[in-house]
């Protein structure tokens, strides 16, 4: 069950690869069908597979903007936990997405999000969505998340 | 408009319908959209995922734009330029409503604001500002 999932235990180091099956098991991420692709110190990459139900209109067989927003929001959260190396409850405060071009027909879309800064109560993320070539993005995002609690509780190391 | 006040055009995308978004009614000709507290919208246990909230607000904006263009007798394709969302309070896993307002409807783009609320309308859960590209089908020159 969600509240017993190991990635939510603050004593455990957050590993996005191990947490992904729990994070993407159900709810909105499960409905989207998100999967884990990779991560580094402060970034994560996840995939949104193409399917007909995610189409934005009848003219072009491409993933709509809404699911791409959802994936970037999710990817940003995972990037924050990856950088913090532990799970902290967070809520998105403000998020902006610029859609540069439609995704390719029937193309999966990939989100790469980087958490470039955390303070005691906020985390800052930038990211892109692409359909194969990160140098030719479908969309770019910038977002601020607030922690519900504290990134640096007494006893935790400062970063 | 039909006798029920429903416009004779499709206001919802594939994506919106499969997420469970519905037109719950019209206020002064403006569609009010709704999605109930189903599992497909859940993020943090018992709450909406921010992406589902945004998806509802974006759908409300497109529905209103499609309707406004239809009422002017114009054919156009709508493409997203950008969206900025403010998440004001956690939305609980129960019906969430959204209604858009067109701030500007220009030749090439529109600017739309949207609010989403639950039981207390004057305490919105989220708001959004969007710019949308309008690609009008030009009548063919003869």
Automatic annotation (TrEMBL), chain A:
Ranges for domain Thioesterase: 67-135
Q: Which domain of life is it from?
A: Bacteria
Q: Tell me which InterPro entries the record gives.
A: HotDog_dom_sf (IPR029069), Thioestr_dom (IPR006683)
> TM segments?
none
UniProt-recorded name of the protein: PaaI family thioesterase
Q: Which organism is it from?
A: Alteriqipengyuania abyssalis
Automatic annotation (TrEMBL), chain B:
| Record domain Thioesterase: where | 46-122
Q: Which domain of life is it from?
A: Bacteria
Under the heading SUPFAM superfamilies, the entry gives: Thioesterase/thiol ester dehydrase-isomerase
| Xref: Gene3D superfamilies | Hotdog Thioesterase
Q: What is this protein called?
A: PaaI family thioesterase
Organism (species): Alteriqipengyuania abyssalis
